[in-house]
Design a protein that fits this description.
His-Me finger endonuclease fold, two-stranded antiparallel sheet, 5 helices, elongated, about 140 residues
């Protein structure tokens, strides 16, 4: 009855100590704290990822959140189709000339992939092919 009165009186309810809580309340409180920590960690990862992508030269049209959501949901490489081993193996591929993101690929495909996209001028694309052919050892 005291709790109901304090609600109607406008007095704040005193927080229970762990010794006053039931087992169910303790578990619920620990789950709430764990969820809060996980959400803070995910928020930090999102912020760091977007910052890293911008530093790498990627250009977004105010839709970084959409790219991050796709980045986190994809389970396999767009290029080779292999499943991602871990979060570090997953890469947001982008054109190195114009900065447009192309897809989520694995680290191996990101290293071996062409650095320009179809939106770049043809002479730029041909220069990159020529550079690749000159650097390959026969």
């Amino acid at each position: 009855m005291a709790n109901i009165r304090s609600i109607f009186d406008g007095k704040p309810k005193a927080k229970k100590t762990k010794s006053q809580m039931s087992v169910r309340e303790i578990i619920k409180e620990e789950e709430r704290i764990e969820l809060k920590k996980r959400l803070q960690k995910e928020k930090k990862h999102k912020k760091d990822s977007i910052k890293r992508w911008r530093k790498a030269g990627m250009k977004f049209n105010n839709d970084e959140d959409d790219y991050y959501k796709i980045y986190m949901e994809k389970l396999e490489c767009f290029s080779c189709g292999n499943c991602f081993i871990n979060r570090r193996n997953r890469q947001l591929d982008h054109c190195h000339h114009c900065g447009i993101p192309r897809g989520i690929i694995c680290f191996k495909c990101n290293i071996n992939d062409l650095v320009y996209c179809l939106f770049c001028p043809m002479d730029t694309f041909m220069k990159s092919i020529k550079k690749i052919n000159e650097s390959s050892i026969c």
